[in-house]
Write the structure tokens for this entry.
Amino acid sequence: MRLKTVFDGEIEVPDSRIITFVSPLVGFDHLARFVIYQRDPGPLFWLQSVDDSAIAFCVVAPFTAGIDPEMTIDPDDAAAIRSPGEDDIDVYTLVVLDRDLDKVRTNLRAPILVGRQSNLATQVILDDPELPICYPLKAVLTAAEQG
């Protein structure tokens, strides 16, 4: 399918890459289908709405980016996206972008879980005060730039 994106015009996306949220992102109840893609190599991805081409969120895959948060995925959350377990789940967190690199951050307490086999997704709120709500990404982004 051809998908109009916020930043890259139209891109070709196989139907198999479309993920469907089993519960909507807060404030975006009318949107369920998204595609996750990268514009450039590095730790950042785009969560682009299939249903509304004007909506895209920056996300980071924390484990791939070298952030190793101690997240425990509830079996009920895995079941909600029809995932057999943690090995079948990709984890992303929303990124707050800013021109000031010191202010770019992510919320590790509210990850987005994506079932690799099912292509179903959900955002969960983890009840772990050790996971920061405002985790700065400057070191991750600087390391990615340096290769």
In short: The mean pLDDT is 93. The first strand starts at residue 2 and ends at 4. The radius of gyration is 15 Å. The chain is about 10% helix and 30% strand.
